[in-house]
Amino acid sequence: MARGSRLARVAALGLLGVLVLSGCDLNNEFWRFGFPEGVTEQSVGVRQLWTGSVIAALIVGFIVWGLIIWSVIFHRKKGDELPRQTAYNLPLEIAYSIFPFLIIAALFFFTVVVQNDVQERSDEPDTTIAVNAFKWNWQFVYPETTGDDGEPVNTVGSTDEIPILVMPVDQDVRFEVASADVIHSFWVPEFLFKLDVIPGNENGRDNVFEVRANQEGAYVGRCAELCGTYHAYMNFEVRVVSGDDYEAYLDAREGGQNTREALESIGQDGEATTTRPFRVGDGYYQQAAN
């Protein structure tokens, strides 16, 4: 009994240590457990949910591993005499019925809270960008602009160029996504979020989301839904720039410049830096840069 009590105290101290450490900076790379840091305001809650879930899983794991090791060490065979058999243990059965339910309920609660935060939309976003997906390419349309051809400014990939989606930092950007053929999925890993693009639901409630990027930079985007032969090469790039540069970029596009020229006019690379084209036959496909 004394050994069992000591083991219980050690286990309790170990769990307390995990809980105390979990109160440290959750932005630390160690506590992300391999998860990307995220570059949007919405990604903070997602990252913290991931960290909390992993810590909870580790706590449960340590308890299970501890019980297994304790049983192996203290209940190994000591002779030919049959140990005392226990058919029922009502308190224990109640405990291992209630505790899993509480764990599931807690995870469900925090998941719903984060999901609602990620899916929240403002009444009037600062910018709206339409995203059109098709096998196997992307088109990004800026509906509040007018190009020299009288149509909204848009960017679409080609055999030699990755499509680049330009968006402003520190602004609420609404994406209205649509598919021309099959189910695709709009995914930017650093957003810690992806949205399936459902055909026949253009700009519907389920095909709209908003993000607020808080860090400038270039980030690879991918299709995360198996959509056909060249799904793996259906990449794009998100370029997050300052608000002034974003306005200057749109002005340049409205003035007749293409994506490359407009990006270079605001001091950005004219080509994608996170992924590159990959030719297969006559189609347009891409592969991630090494």
UniProtKB/TrEMBL annotation:
GO terms for biological process: ATP synthesis coupled electron transport. Residues 124-252 form the Cytochrome oxidase subunit II copper A binding domain. Its EC number is 7.1.1.9. InterPro entries: CcO_II, CcO_II-like_C, Copper_CuA, Cupredoxin, Cyt_c_oxidase_su2, Cyt_c_oxidase_su2_TM_sf. SUPFAM superfamilies: Cupredoxins, Cytochrome c oxidase subunit II-like, transmembrane region. Keywords: Copper, Electron transport, Membrane, Metal-binding, Respiratory chain, Translocase, Transmembrane, Transmembrane helix, Transport. Residues 261-282 are annotated as: Disordered. It is a multi-pass membrane protein. The chain crosses the membrane at residues 50-73, 94-114. The keyword Translocase applies. Gene3D superfamilies: 1.10.287.90, Cupredoxins - blue copper proteins. It catalyses: 4 Fe(II)-[cytochrome c] + O2 + 8 H(+)(in) = 4 Fe(III)-[cytochrome c] + 2 H2O + 4 H(+)(out). GO terms for cellular component: membrane. One of its GO terms (molecular function) is oxidoreductase activity. It is found in: Membrane. Belongs to the cytochrome c oxidase subunit 2 family. This is cytochrome-c oxidase. It comes from Geodermatophilus obscurus.
